[in-house]
Structure formats: C-alpha cells, structure tokens
Inverse folding.
C-alpha cells in the first residue's frame, strides 16, 4: 500500500529548501541542520530539516535538465 507521507530526502538526493526556494543536493546532516550544495557546485548552505522537501517529478526533471544544459554550454 502506498503512503501519502512525504519523507525527507536522503544524502545525495535533490531537495528543495522551502524557506529560501533554493534547490540543491543534500550533502550531510550535521548538528540538527541539513547541508545542501547548489546544483552548480559551490558552498553549501544550512537548512532546517523541516524546510527540506523532496522535489516533485516535474521539479526534479527541470533541475536535472538545467544541469545538463549548463554542462553542455561550458563544453563549447
């Protein structure tokens, strides 16, 4: 039976910080906070666990497509 309950994203998964609206990759959970790295790399930011949510299928597809497009542009 499928559950309607949403789970927190695991380390390595894409997630959204609902407080800031930013999307990134969950890197770690330290000191009661979740560390998320931007999709393009760079410095991680801390988010409260209650604000970190899994992406919808549409959001995840859009994020992955943006990453691929960015990678193809940088190769030119």
């Amino acid at each position: 039976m499928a559950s309607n309950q949403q789970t927190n994203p695991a380390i390595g998964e894409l997630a959204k910080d609902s407080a800031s609206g930013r999307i990134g990759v969950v890197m770690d959970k330290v000191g009661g906070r979740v560390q998320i790295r931007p999709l393009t790399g760079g410095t991680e930011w801390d988010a409260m666990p209650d604000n970190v949510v899994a992406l919808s299928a549409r959001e995840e597809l859009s994020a992955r497509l943006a990453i691929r497009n960015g990678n193809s542009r940088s190769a030119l």
